[in-house]
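Progress report, Aim 2. The chain analyzed during this reporting quarter is listed below.
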Amino acid sequence: MKALASIFAMALLITSCTGEVVGEYSTHQCYYMIDFQYGHTASPLYASLNSNNTFCVISTSPIGSTAYKLTAQLQGATAHEESITEEMNTRPSRQLGLAGSLIIGRSSFQDGALYVFDRQCPNCYNDKRRANYPLSFSNAQSMHCANCGRTYSLLSGGVVSAGDNGEKLFRYKATYTSLRLSISNP
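Predicted structure tokens for the chain:
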């Protein structure tokens, strides 16, 4: 019995070093923090954090050396863009998952649980070991991969809801208060 426990512990250790999902959360790196005390309450990101069953996709891009552009988009809506200075972002570095883009929202099916998923298709990433397979909205609560044909349910924790069976979406740890979203994983 002790040998079996040692084998299980070793398998868990090896899995955790590869950047795969261990338990509920991925071990891939993801860092982002935004402070809403400086505004940004018109952003779809703010709406997604404060209402159930509303998900948005966010990405950032640099604007010079002291600011970046935050792009947030709800399914079927025009992308909302705004400039954010690094001073307003209380963490100096940003890494938005494997594909540089995240899916953020809450699910009423999970008692308002906050979900932060990587926009990268996990099954295509695991097959190809490249982050070139971004997901797109198929409706307001699910994402679709054009490469493998899988659809993922955002309301049910990112599980495959259509297409071949497979891994659920990579999920990152996050906390949110009315003033700050903080994603720090692992």
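DSSP finds three helices and 14 strands in the chain. Residues 2-17 form the longest helix (16 residues). These observations will guide the mutagenesis work planned for the next reporting period.
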